[in-house]
Structures are given as C-alpha cells and as structure tokens.
Amino acid sequence: MKPFATIVLLGLGLVACSGKSDDGTDGMSAAEMAQMDNDSGEPEMTAAEMATMDDPDLGGRRPVHLTESQQTALGVVYIAVTRENLIRIVRTVGEVRAAEPQVADVTPKIDGFVEELFVDFTGQTVREGQPLLTLYSPSMVAAQEEMLTALRLATSIDSGATEAWENAQRMLEAARRRLAYWDITPDQVAEIERTGVTNKSLTLVAPVSGIVLEKRVVSGQQVMPGMLMYRIADLTSVWIEGEVFEQDLQFVETGDQAHIEVEAYPGDHLMGRVSFIHPVVDTRTRTTRIRVAVPNPDLRLKPGMFATIYFEKSIGTTFPVIPVEAVIITGERDLVFLRDADGMLNPREVVLGARADGKVQILQGLAEGDTIVGSANYLIDSESRLASTGGGMMPGMDMGPPEDSQ
Predict the structure, then answer these.
(1) Which end of the chain, N or C, is more open, meaning fewer C-beta atoms within 10 Å of its C-beta?
(2) Pick from 282, 312, 342: which residue ends a domain?
(3) Residue 227 in contact with residue 160, Cβ under 8 Å?
C-alpha cells in the first residue's frame, strides 16, 4: 500500500502545479510583461507604446513605425492639423403655405338664407370691403325694426326731459351695437336710419384683400352662426415650411437668411428668412419643423408648391479641423494616428465637432500644427491592433522606435 499512496501524492502535486504559470507572469499587466521581455534582451519599448498597451480606451492598439518603402506601398499621406473657417450648408425640402396671420374666414353671426353670391368661385381675387354675398335673416330684420323704433323715440323726446331723453339715447345705442355685432357696417346702419326703411338682406363684405382659398356656400343655402363660408388669404407674402434633422438644428436660427429654389421657376433664386423654429422634435422622423417667410409680391409662389431650402452657416475657427477621411470611426471611439518627432504613428482618441465640406472640427485630442495620417489609416489601424497580439500583416513592420544607424 505504501508505494500506491506515494504515487497518488505525486499525482496530486502535479495537478496543483499545473494551475500556475511556469513563468510567473500571473497578474502582470501588458506593460509589465513587455518590460520583462525587454529585460530578456528584446529591443526596449517606448513609454508611448507601453502606455498604449495598457490603455483600454484605445482598444489595445500599439504605435506603428513605417519605413519609406512601407509608406509608399500603403499609400500613406501625412497632413497637418490646421484652423480654417468651415461653411456648413443645410438643405431641406419645404412646402409653400399661406401665412396664417394673413388668412381670414368669413362666417355669419346670425342664421339666415343666402340670396345672392357676388364671389362665386374659388381662386377669385377680392379686395377689402368688396361685397361677397347677401343674406336674408328674420332676426336681422327684427333688429333693424327695434333700432328704428328707438330712433323715433329718441327724436320725439325733448332733451329737456333729461332722464327720459338719456334712456332713449341708451336704447338707440344698444340697437346700433346689436347690428354692429352682426357685422352690419356703420355706413349700412346710417343708411337705414336716414331712409327709415329696413333692409331685407344683409351684405357681407371681404374682411381682407387676397385670394379666395375656399368657398363653401351656394345660392339659396341656409347658414348658421359660425359656419365657414369663405376663406381668404393675402398671398403677397407666404411661408415655406420644411423639416430639419435634429443634428442640423445648431446651424439654423431664427432670423437666418435662407436660399430658396422652386422647380416651377428653374434658375430663379429667391430669398427668405427663418421666422420660427418649432420647439419640439418629431419622435418618428427625428426632425423639427422650421418656417421661412418669403415676400411674394407677384404671387408666383402658390400654396402647395414644393421648394428646396438652403442654409449657409459659418462655423468659425475656434477648433482645429482635419479631413473626415483621416478619422477612424469604430463605433466606440474616434481615432487618428498622430506622427511624433521619431516617425512613430501613435493612435490618439479625438472628440469630433461640426462637419462641413468633407472636414470635421476636433474639439479635443489634437492641436494646430500636429501631423497625422491622412490616408491608408485603416490599414495602419489593422497593423496597430495586430501588433498588440504579436502579429502584423506586412513583413518587416516595425512596432518599435526606429533604430539609430551605426
């Protein structure tokens, strides 16, 4: 039994030892492991390389050094980080609409029957005060009779009877106000008082000058208070409303000038100004409605037309800019490869700002005058990531600093 027990104890000891690293690297960081390799005779790593290996924000990427032939083979181009004023152009499609403050509805305030239509089709041009229709209303006839009665009473009472005369005057004024509330004009009231004859029908006139957009009444029709009979709009200035994506709202402000093109008039360039930006974003389209006020003295712009709206916004020179193609967008971070004085290409995380003309502002991560990789950066990124695993795509790719020539 003793030889058997000895064999079992030896086996348990081997199993326990197999769970530990033979080289004693358990718990060591990548930089510590790299330093151990350097102590064993490998070329010494730079501080930038060692910091990059332990930086989780760079996804394990390491600096890369390219020879002249490798740069030529990859088509690497270096560019300098500069400051310049970017002009952002925001484009959207809008629809021409009548300006709401210049739209008026014609509705009766009494019930009655349409006797005659003077404006009898949609699209007709009318001027303010122009007769639209005549309306017969028994209630209106009764109100006129009351006013004439009050007028006769007021004129028959001697002004010396102060109280009676004042009461008669108040009754007359009340009768006049009642007719005025029903949109009977002061001239019409004066004519009734002058002739002493009631009018069977009431003439309704246009409240504004403009175009008849809607006509919902015909001759002989009975109408009720509040019923829409006409909708008239002054189209000498119109609105063009469109949608702007939420990421472009920073480039559109109330009062900004807008450039407008309409397919009906190719080659014509119209101008307007942003008069209103809606305070909410549509959750389905992620857009916000904007409104542009446009002069339209010749009535060429017609409600329902489509128009293309352009906004030009100067972004300024507060931050440095680089080409968008120089940025590696991974979904988790935005990176560029920064070239240092030794020719090493170091991955650098950046914060992107506004974009325009194929360029992007860098809010954080670069400074004016820095040199970065402008092309073939995705190939260099692949080499940088493979280097962290000890491999590479290109033979002879140097993942360390250039050696001094002897």
Answers:
(1) C
(2) 312
(3) no
For the stretch 84-140, pLDDT in tens is 988 999 999 999 999 999 999 999 999 999 999 999 999 999 999 999 999 999 988
Domain count, the chain: 3
How far, in Å, CA of 207 to CA of 131, rounded? Answer: 10
Share of the chain above pLDDT 70, in %: 80
- Segments forming the whole domain that contains residue 256: 93-98+238-312
C-alpha span between 171 and 317 (Å, rounded): 74
- Here the CATH number for the domain that contains residue 330 is 2.40.420.20
- Please give the Cα distance from 281 to 227 (Å, whole number): 34
Beta strand spans in 77-226 (E): 77-80, 86-98, 103-106, 112-117, 125-126, 131-136, 201-205, 210-215, 222-223
Q: What is the DSSP letter of 44?
A: P
Angstrom distance (rounded) from CA 347 to CA 335: 6
Q: Which residue has the higher pLDDT, 153 or 54?
A: 153
- Say if residue 130 is in the same domain as residue 180: yes
Token pair 């709206």 in the structure block, residue? 309
Are 323 and 305 found together in one domain?
A: no
In this structure, are 213 and 244 located in the same domain?
Answer: no
Task: Provide the terminal-to-terminal Cα distance of the chain, rounded to the nearest Å.
Answer: 69
Q: Kindly report the pTM of this predicted structure.
A: 0.68
